[in-house]
Amino acid sequence: MAERVQFRKKKRRPIPKISNLTLKERVVNVRRVVKVTKGGRTFRFSALVVVGDQDGVVGYGHGKAREVAAAVEKATDQAKKNLYRVPILQGTVPHDVEAKEMGTRVIIKRAAPGTGVIAGGAMRAVLESAGYTDVIAKVIGSTTPHNVVRATMKALLSLRDPVTIARQRGITLNKLFNG
């Protein structure tokens, strides 16, 4: 009989209390969902929101309600509960990264200062909310906003900070960058 493999949950990077942060919210997507019953059609709204302080803290949330405003509010509340810290190195990502979520694959690459954020809608919202100013990104496959946001977050959470890498290897930052 095969033993069940236990997966460890990825540790969340510690973030300061929400009261200390000035979070900006961006509505990525609002959809009207219809449920057909014998009494007619029932309309509801689904919202996807990204929040961030534009200084390395970002999160996303999904909310559903009968009104658009209520759906956006629920999504914002969920996003504020799911905040993560991501590494930013001189306005760009520390290294190139790739991630996959469902049918969506995202590639995020470093960019020279002054390049700006070159990315599509849902991915742009996440990258700008996180605080990246120079980055090149591409979505391959499905462009469903929810999957793009999840794949982008997965990619950003897999980034490693140069200081952490140097500490793990037992070398200085200068040696890490210059060999």
Helix content: 25-40%
Give the total of beta strands: 8
Categorize the overall geometry.
elongated
* Strand/helix succession: EEEHEEEEHEHHH
Spans where pLDDT lies below 50 across 5 or more residues: none
Tell me the strand order in the biggest sheet. Answer: 1-2-3-4
Overall pLDDT:
89
Please report the number of helical segments. Answer: 5
Report the biggest beta sheet as strand number plus sense, adding barrel if it closes: 4 strands, antiparallel
As a percent range, the share of strand residues is 25-35%
Oligomer: single chain
Distance between the termini: 49 Å
State Rg: 19 Å
Structural class: alpha+beta
Task: Explain what this protein looks like in three dimensions.
- The chain starts with 23 loop residues before the first strand and ends with a helix.
- By secondary structure, the protein is an alpha+beta fold.
- A hairpin with a 2-residue loop joins strand 5 and strand 6.
- The protein contains five helices and eight strands; from the N terminus they run βββαββββαβααα.
- A four-stranded antiparallel β-sheet has the order 1-2-3-4. A four-stranded mixed β-sheet has the order 5-6-8-7.
Question: What's a concise summary of this model?
Answer:
This protein is an alpha+beta fold.
Task: Reconstruct the topology from this structure.
Elements (H helix, E strand, L loop, with lengths): L23 E14 L2 E13 L4 E9 L2 H14 L1 E3 L11 E5 L2 E7 L6 E2 L2 H10 L4 E7 L3 H13 L4 H8 L3 H6 L1
Key structural traits:
179 residues, alpha+beta, 4-stranded antiparallel beta sheet, 4-stranded mixed beta sheet, 5 helices, 8 strands
